[in-house]
């Protein structure tokens, strides 16, 4: 995936993302925590055809769904590694 980051003065930061298959979308992160997920119809399109506004908690929930491993699973794995380290065992992958 290609990611292009741009600062938008007075608004926030926009990340334009292009997938391997050529899909183009962007995430605008406002200073107040709100996020916009914008979808583009083609590489040449300057204006998105859809703009979905997410409050901070909605963006967090969406991000949780997009992780390849859930936060709960990652925390559990870290707890296992910490337990092994504190009991003198070398961690395994």
UniProtKB/TrEMBL annotation:
InterPro entries: KhtT-like_N (IPR058776). Pfam families: KhtT_N. It comes from the Bacteria. Residues 1-69 form the Potassium/proton antiporter subunit KhtT-like N-terminal domain. This is Potassium/proton antiporter subunit KhtT-like N-terminal domain-containing protein. It comes from Nocardia acididurans. The lineage of its organism: Bacteria, Bacillati, Actinomycetota, Actinomycetes, Mycobacteriales.
């Amino acid at each position: 995936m290609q990611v292009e980051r741009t600062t938008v003065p007075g608004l926030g930061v926009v990340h334009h993302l292009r997938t391997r298959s050529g899909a183009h979308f962007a995430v605008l992160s406002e200073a107040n925590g709100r996020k916009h997920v914008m979808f583009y119809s083609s590489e040449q399109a300057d204006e998105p055809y859809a703009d979905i506004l997410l409050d901070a908690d909605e963006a967090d929930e969406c991000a949780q769904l997009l992780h390849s491993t859930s936060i709960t699973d990652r925390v559990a794995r870290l707890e296992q590694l910490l337990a092994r380290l504190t009991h003198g065992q070398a961690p395994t992958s």
